[in-house]
Amino acid sequence: DAKTTQPTSMDCAEGRAANLPCNHSTISGNEYVYWYRQIHSQGPQYIIHGLKNNETNEMASLIITEDRKSSTLILPHATLRDTAVYYCIVRSPWRSSASKIIFGSGTRLSIRP
Amino acid sequence: EPEVTQTPSHQVTQMGQEVILRCVPISNHLYFYWYRQILGQKVEFLVSFYNNEISEKSEIFDDQFSVERPDGSNFTLKIRSTKLEDSAMYFCATATIRLGQVNHEQYFGPGTRLTVT
Lengths: 113, 117
Description:
- The structure holds two protein chains of two kinds.
- Chain A is mainly beta.
- Helices cover 0% and strands 44% of the residues of chain A.
- Chain A is built from no helices and nine strands.
């Protein structure tokens, strides 16, 4: 799986948009970009994924650059409950290849009141 | 929303003892995983399991570890002879399969905290 690079930590004011960047310059054509988060002492939680188009769901938006070498996760109106470690992961979901998730160190996002 | 459940939430055991960690997957999920997280460290993949056999395992998953789905519902991780360094949070995760592709989303359980003394 391609390696990703994320800032170690970020903070954001409550109610503002949190923009979390991720670099994945070695991503290959069949690999997707995934975002998970881990709230303290809980299991990781899936947020969103994308291949090349921008994606939006009820939790977040995912913006992928045209060359697919980087992406940004956007939490549009951050709340205190969004304080967590956010993981950007690049992997292929095909069963014939490893479907495991390789977690990096992620970005520790702190939301301040 | 359906959830993955894990029992026990916390297990304390003495070094050398056997432990079995249990996971109840979401009902229509067919792909199962175990991950672990040592305190303050990254989440690490241990093993994936599909169609009653191991699909992939990491270097961590040595002969002391085993997995099975004994009754078609529970998915278990057994550590045969625990060591101090096995102390960690153990997370079960499950996923569906559609058209040969493991579904994008893995659902994680709340974890079992294993403490080996």
